[in-house]
Amino acid sequence: MAHALRGKTAVVGIGTAGTGEAPGRSAIELLADASLNAIADAGLKLSDVDGIFAATSTHAFPTLSVAEYLGLRPRFVDGTNIGGASFEAHLLHAALALDAGLCDVALICYGSNQRSAGGRLVSMSEPQVWEAPFKPRMPLTAYALAASRHMHQFGTTREQLAEVAVAARAWANLNPAAFARGPLSVADVLASRMISDPLTVLDCCLVTDGGAACVMTRADRARHLAKPPVYFLGGAGAQWHRAISAMPDLTVTAASESGPRALAHAGVSLADVKLAMLYDAFTICTVLFLEDLGFCPKGEGGRFVEGGAIAPGGRLAVNTNGGGLSCVHPGMYGLFLIIEAVTQLRGQAGDRQVRDCDIALVHGNGGTLSAQVTGVLGSAATV
Amino acid sequence: MTEAGPGPEAAFRAFLKEGRFMIQRSASTGRHVFYPRVALPGTGERDLEWVPASGFGTVYATTVARQRPNPDGSSNDYNIAIVELDEGVRMMSRVEGLPPTEVKIGQRVKARIAEVDGAPGIVFDPV
User: Is B66's CB within 8 Å of A197's CB?
Assistant: First the structure.
């Protein structure tokens, strides 16, 4: 049976700012612009916001910084930071806080200027004492290790991993807002520079700038706002490790626990899911999450993505914005998964619109395959 | 194990300085633990005792950190591996004594205490 939270709250506004390159703009400026865009999209006023949910790579106390910058005195805040999956967790936490009446208008927000500020991944993540002496380049090294193990155990090939990047690019080519566009082939990915075997530079996500935000309210209010509500149907998180060397099995993530639990909360089955937004920091991520969420059996992810199966026109619509690989990846990408899912569920995705898109799954990943949070969103037809 | 004095992390490092690779084992369950902790993860047994590691293990996962080459063209690439010790625990390390691209999953390796980033640490050699 579905969880009591199903359909009680909805995303009513979304906004982005400076996605791609935003030279001269700070992280908090991008976050604030995205937030104001999301609030305006909902047809609400800044002063309506009384709940703040935030995580960034540059703010130790993000909800304090956001409230001060926007001039808000929130009734409820949550600065849970579990890396890129933070925002899928915030969806669940905001739904809880709204349903409990602890706040009425929840703002979930993020901003990063990492590309313009130096072009490197910015992270407040502390070095792991049992790993740092061996000079891993985190998070890259961790995902490369996981890919090596998947290839060894299941015969997954570099060509299959490259298919993930090629599919993401094909979707990006349908999205005018995507940062990396243009032709990309499996051969291009294989021929690009190896940076941590078996991953090449084109197996890795972009380093961009960007802010993103969404606004949530309870369903009764959502129905009277500016845009069609996108309902929160269910969500769940799971985590089994912090450092990659402590991961119980490098080929099985905690998405295998968060996914089924989120679907059960939402009262939907995988067959109902029209769009899967899966956090693709590296090509191996998409393969692992397709398996762990149940779209294919464990070990079959490489074969599942072959032949354009997750590209436009394929058997499953995955990462239709172009993903972290080709659309946008400003350090923590999780909120952009929600932005695309809402855009698709509203039927406003233009050339890349998924037909009859009424249920979308958003799956956030944080750390080194560490934090896994799955959310299920639905159109008005689903409640 | 008492709550007074240096903790398990300091104890592990002190053993390394003496040239000993020691890991923890729960007396009641027989389970080994790495990294050193104050209790067995998940179940909380605090009866951890130090035992010598066999030193033997198997490469569980491996990668090559690709670096810009030296001015003379020689490689700066290095290996990073996760090794599963025969005791059943895993650790990050590197396999030395062969080109980093030649380290293979499933390969048998043996631990050696070496200087790692300025302090004694565990690296592995092929056996």
Answer: yes
Residues A321 and A20: beta-carbon distance below 8 Å: no
Nearest-Cα residue of chain B relative to residue A249: B60
Out of 3.40.50.10610, 2.40.50.840, 2.160.10.10, 2.30.130.40, select the CATH number for domain B54-127: 2.40.50.840
- Give, for B111, the enclosing helix (H) or strand (E): strand B108-116
Backbone angles phi, psi at A144, to 5 degrees: -65, -40
Q: Does A169 share its domain with A85?
A: no
Nearest chain B Cα distance for residue A140, angstroms: 9
**Domain match, A50 and A184 both:** no
Q: Which chain B residues are Cβ-neighbours of A152 within 8 angstroms? A: 61, 105-106
Which residue among A131, A145, A194 sits closest to B61, beta carbon to beta carbon?
Answer: A145
Dihedral sign (CA A245, A251, A257, A258): positive
Report the CATH number that the domain containing residue A287 is assigned in CATH.
3.40.47.10
| Dihedral pair phi/psi, residue A84, rounded to 5° | -60, -15
Q: CB of B63 within 8 Å of any CB in chain A?
A: yes
Same domain, A154 and A224: no
Residues of A in contact with B61 (CB under 8 A): 145-146, 148-149, 152, 250
Q: What are the pLDDT tens digits along chain A (383 aa)?
A: 899 999 999 999 999 999 999 999 999 999 999 999 999 999 999 999 999 999 999 999 999 999 999 999 999 999 999 999 999 999 999 999 999 999 999 999 999 999 998 876 667 788 899 999 999 999 999 999 999 999 999 999 999 999 999 999 999 999 999 999 999 999 999 999 999 999 999 999 999 999 999 999 999 999 999 999 999 999 999 999 999 999 999 999 999 999 999 999 999 999 999 999 999 999 999 999 999 999 999 999 999 999 999 999 999 999 999 999 999 999 999 999 999 999 999 999 999 999 999 999 999 999 999 999 999 999 999 99
Q: How far apart are CA A95 and CA A10, in angstroms?
A: 8
Q: Nearest-CA neighbor of A114 among A26, A230, A173, A203?
A: A26
Side chain identity, residue A177 = A
If asked whether residues A171 and A219 sit together in one domain, one would say no
Range of the domain at A53: 9-118+209-229
Global ipTM: 0.96
